[in-house]
Every structure is written in C-alpha cells, then in structure tokens.
Amino acid sequence: MSVQRTLAIIKPDVVEKRQQGVVLQRILDEGFRVLAMRQARLSRQAVEGFYAVHRGKPFFDELCDFMSRGPVVLLALERENAVAHWRAVIGATNPANAEPGTIRKELGSSVGENAVHGSDSEENGARECDYFFAGVDQA
Ligand code: GDP
C-alpha cells in the first residue's frame, strides 16, 4: 500500500439537500488529508470531458444533465490506500446495492443520483485531481 490521491465529488443531489457537511465530516473522520477543495457549477463541457470514458453509453446524457444541473463540491484527497478506502466508504454505484453505513446507501437515491464520486484506480485518482486542480501535487 502507498499514499495515493483520489478525487471526491459531492454531487448536485447532496448539495441541493444541504448535506455537504455530512460528507465532509466523513472525509475527515476517515483520515483523508484535503489537498484542495472548491465548490463549482460544472459546465456541460467540463462534465462531458470528465466522464469521456462513458460517452456513447445509454446513461451518458442523463449523467451529464445531472452533474451540470447545480453546484458540486470537488475535493482532492490524500491518504494511505486512498482509492480503495474511499470506494469502500462510498459504496456500490447503485445505492440499492450499497452496504449499510456507506455514503451512497445513506444519501444516494438512485443509480444515477448516487451522492458522491470516487476515482476507480490510482492512475485515475491522480489524473482526475489534475483535471480540476492542476498542480495539486505541490499542495
Ligand atoms: P462509479 O465509479 O461507481 O461512479 O460508477 P461508473 O463509473 O460506472 O459510472 C459513473 C457514474 O455514472 C455513476 O456514479 C452514476 O452517477 C452514473 N451511472 C452509472 N450507471 C448508470 C445508469 O445505469 N443510469 C444512470 N442514470 N446513471 C448511471
């Protein structure tokens, strides 16, 4: 195991419900170091770029509509084994299949509106942090 970076996004559904604080406290309780954090209303173009790997999938338009419909909170996080640890904390993509106590189980409402994002590999963690926070390496 090694110290890694992962990108977390608090998605628009959580911000709309004013529950960002629940996720932020969990991030701190889980021992992550916050390298960078900002709230942003993502443009459709920024979302399409971020989720480019999903272009062409049946849910791509729905995903881009959702992620650009209101503000999100972007966080570059660092921790030992950050990628797998954050994925375990957030739970399965579909909240219906997520373990009790995971963020998606507690705050997600559907496979699309599932509360939070987490990078899925060490390489993507570094790339996704750079996508929104260029130069975060120096933080
Ligand atoms: P993740 O790594 O757990 O976020 O899951 P994926 O990389 O497979 O999908 C990215 C995001 O697309 C998910 O977090 C969901 O917000 C959305 N998504 C995935 N599958 C579906 C689906 O079947 N329908 C809809 N509407 N959205 C989906």
Structural account:
With 139 residues, the chain is of the alpha+beta class. Helix content is 40%, strand content 20%. It has 7 helices and 4 strands, in the order βααβααβααβα. The protein has a 4-stranded antiparallel sheet with strand order 2-3-1-4. The longest helix is centred in the C-terminal third of the chain and has 11 residues, at 122-132. The radius of gyration is 14 Å and the shape is globular. The protein starts with a strand and ends in a 7-residue tail after the last helix. 31% of the residues are buried. Guanosine-5'-diphosphate binds at residues 59, 62-63, 93, 111-112, 114, 117, 120.
Fold topology:
Layout: E1 3-10, H1 12-16, H2 20-29, E2 33-40, H3 44-50, H4 60-67, E3 72-80, H5 82-90, H6 103-107, E4 116-118, H7 122-132
Antiparallel strand pairs: 1-3, 1-4, 2-3
The protein binds guanosine-5'-diphosphate (GDP).
Guanosine-5'-diphosphate binds at residues 59, 62-63, 93, 111-112, 114, 117, 120.
Poorly predicted sequence stretches spanning 5 or more consecutive residues:
none
Q: Can you summarize the main beta sheet? A: 4 strands, antiparallel
Cα separation of the termini: 21 Å
Order of SSEs: EHHEHHEHHEH
* Tally of separate helices: 7
Summarize the model shown.
This protein has 139 residues and is of the alpha+beta class. The chain has seven helices and four strands, in the order βααβααβααβα.
Structure keywords:
139 residues, alpha+beta, 4-stranded antiparallel β-sheet, 4 strands, 40% helix, globular, binds guanosine-5'-diphosphate
